[in-house]
Amino acid sequence: MDFQALYRQKLRSPEEAVKLVKDGDWVDYSQTCSFPQMLDKALAARSGELHDVKIRNAISMLPVATVENDPGHSFTYNLWHCSGLDRKYIDQGRAFHTPMLFRHCGTYYRKGYAPVDVAMVTVAPMDEYGNFSFGLTNCAMQEVLDAAKTIILEVNPTMPVTAGTENDHINIQDVDCVVECSLPIPATASPLASDLDRKIAEHIMPYITSGATLQLGIGGIPNAIGTLIAESDVKDLGMHTELMSDGYLALYQAGKITNRLKKLNRGKGVFSICNGSRELYDFLDHNGAILTAPMRYVNNPETIRQLDDFVSINGCIAVDLYGQVSSESSGTRQISGTGGQVDFITGVMEAEHGRGFLTMHATFTDKAGNVRSRIVPKFTAGDIITTPRTQAPSIVTEYGIATLPGLPTWQRAEALINIAHPDFREELIRAAEEQKIWRRSNKR
Question: Which of 108, 171, 196, 354 could bridge to 113 as Cys pair (CB 3.0-4.6 Å)?
Answer without folding.
Answer: 108
